[in-house]
Structure formats: C-alpha cells, structure tokens
Amino acid sequence: MKTFDEALSYLVSQAKNSQKTETLPVEQALGKVLAKPITSGVNVPPHDNSQMDGYAINLLDLTHEDTFQISQRIPAGSEPEALELGTVARIFTGAPIPAEANAVIMQEETEQVGDKIKITAKTTRPGQNIRHTGEDIETGHVILEKGHRLRSEDLGLITSIGIGEVSVYQPLKIATFTTGDELLEPGEAPEKGKIFNANRYVLAGAIPQLGFELIDLGRVKDTLEDTIDAMKQAAKVADVVMTTGGVSVGEEDHIKPAIESLGQLDMWKVKMKPGKPLAFGDINGTPFIGLPGNPVSAFATFNLFARPYLLRKQGVKHICITPLWLEADFEWPKSNFRREFARAKLKVDEKSQKTVVELFPNQGSGVLTSAVWAEGFAVIPEDTTVKKGGKVAFYAFNDMI
User: Fold this and answer.
1) Which residue, 280, 169, 276, 177, is CA-closest to 219?
2) pLDDT tens-digit map of 208-248
3) Among residues 101, 177, 263, 272, which one has the fewest Cβ atoms lying within 10 Å of its Cβ?
C-alpha cells in the first residue's frame, strides 16, 4: 500500500508534457498555459505620471511662497510643457509629469485663493504622488514564465505591455466512457437494482473546468469485447484516458483485463480515505488513470491525483496548493493509518469570531451531498487525532480549479 505522498510523487513524475503549441489572441487565452515566457519590450509606466488629481510643483518654490499661479493644465494622454518655475500645473491621475516638477500635491491639500492655488500640505517630499518610469515593469523584464496558467489578471498584465498574442500549449484531450449495466442516465425511469450515473457528470464538469477538452465516448456495453474496443478508440483520439470504477478483479469488471490486453496497468492501494483504489497505466502508449467508483472517492482522487497529473502534463509549472491552517470546530478522536480528506466548510465562531473548520456530519464515500455542501478538504494526517480548537490544514475547492 502506497502512502499518499508516494503515489502523488510517482504519478506527477510520469506526467511528461508533449503538447503542441498554438498562438492565440490574449482575449482567448484564459486558462491556457504559456509555452514561452512573456518579456516586456516597454517600461510600465512609460513615463513619470501623477498618482492622483492635484498640482505638479517644484518643491524648491515652496521655500519662498505657498500660493502659486496655475501655468498649464495637464490631462491624461497629453504632452505637457516644462513647468514654469514659480507656478504649479493642474494635473490629473495618469497624466505625464512636466519637466522641472518633482512632486504632486493632491488637490485636498490645496485651497483656491482667487485665481491662484495655496498649498496647505503639512509635509512634502521629492517624488511625492509620482509613479516613476518602469516602476511596475522595466524593459526586458520577464513578467510571466513558461508554464504559467493564465488568469484574468495575467491577461491584463500582458496587454499592459502592448502584447496582443501569446504562445500556449494546446489543451489536453481527455477521453472518458461509462461501463456498468447497473447505471442509468438522467431522464431514464428509475429501476430496481440500478443507480443514476453521477460519476460521468462529475468528470464532465471537472475536466473542462481545468481547461482541458472533454471527449465523452458515452456508455459502453458491459462486456470485455466492447470495453476493449472503447479503450482502443479512446487511446486513438485522446492524450489521456480516464474512467471511474470497474478496475477490481470481479468477473463483471472488464476495464482491468481490457487495459492489460492493450498495454499495462498498475493497481495501487493508497493510504487515504476516501479513495483507496487508484489505477495508472497506458493503452497502446496513451496514459490511463482509473479512479474509484464511489462518487466521493472519484471526486476526491480526481482533485488530489488526476488534477496535478493533468496540469503537469499540460505544462503547468506550479501545481501545489497552499492550505489554510485553521482551528477545528470538531473532534476527531479516533486515528487512522490512512490520511483522511474530510469534506468541510468554513464558518465564523460566534464566541471567538475566528474562522473555523466545520465538518459535514456524514463522511461516507458514497455521500455526494458532502462534496456539494463542503468548500474544501480538512486533512487529518495518518495516526492523528484532532481536538476541538486544534489546527488543521484546509484545502479549498476553489484553489483546485
């Protein structure tokens, strides 16, 4: 039986990025992974500019007087003249600083005196309220590294240096299909002995949410021959094949012998709960990941194992998630030799007003309502008990998207 860390480390080490690249307009690149670093060809800001509305001034003039004539008006986007000494310039946020000026006095620290401006600021210093050239980004600076997964703020940063297109890796294609005569699809009439197919739709949501292309091959007859045919088709059209359940040694479980007839399969028992069974192998050279069949186990192992594997294979450089360490609003009196990923959410304790971690009351691996109710996993390490008020690691689901 592998520890959680051993299984994750091995799986990620097998994720080799071989994706082709494509060039996309920045507005179409959200969620994509950079195939090349982004280097700035300009300074940001491109010139000294005002941080706020106010008056540009040379502070040497304040040693002689505090009331000045306004010699020019400088809106954003204009090109000012050099400041006439002994005067101030009316200036607006983002406007260029005129030559000879060395500070901006915000308008709240001034008074109108006839057609002149009186400076009432208690303190002044050179460079006050000025954004300097290249203060944010200097020419030649790498603003985003290869392997960075693009977020909305990254798109803004890229366009702030005038770049309109980026080189990114093409999204992984992930093929899935469903086996099991006991499964019903949504909309079908309930039948005795059968259950609705929740796992198919967990994957159908989780895969595109990470920016990958989903290839859903639908439902496959529960025979070895049909399973082999589905595996062959999936391996031809996808970069990774992923299924849930069906990899045990039961007579009706055909995925394991199907893969072994086409490639190789490693079956792992991982010291974690939920989600002990996990399979990894290949089908004619195409990687295969087999997740457990219980809905919560499938959800947990997708996020904790498949997600980092797929992101690394996509070319993402940084795949680790930083937990929050918070007080537990629960007791965990019985230790387990497996690491437990309890479904949990955050709440504010009424007495202490601290943010604490609350558990869903039923932590069963078939209770999918626990994953819907929860906001993340509270991690209980191996051979560990938790007292109320003790610190636990909390991994937010939102950080896994």
Assistant:
1) 177
2) 999 999 999 998 888 899 999 999 999 999 999 999 987 66
3) 263
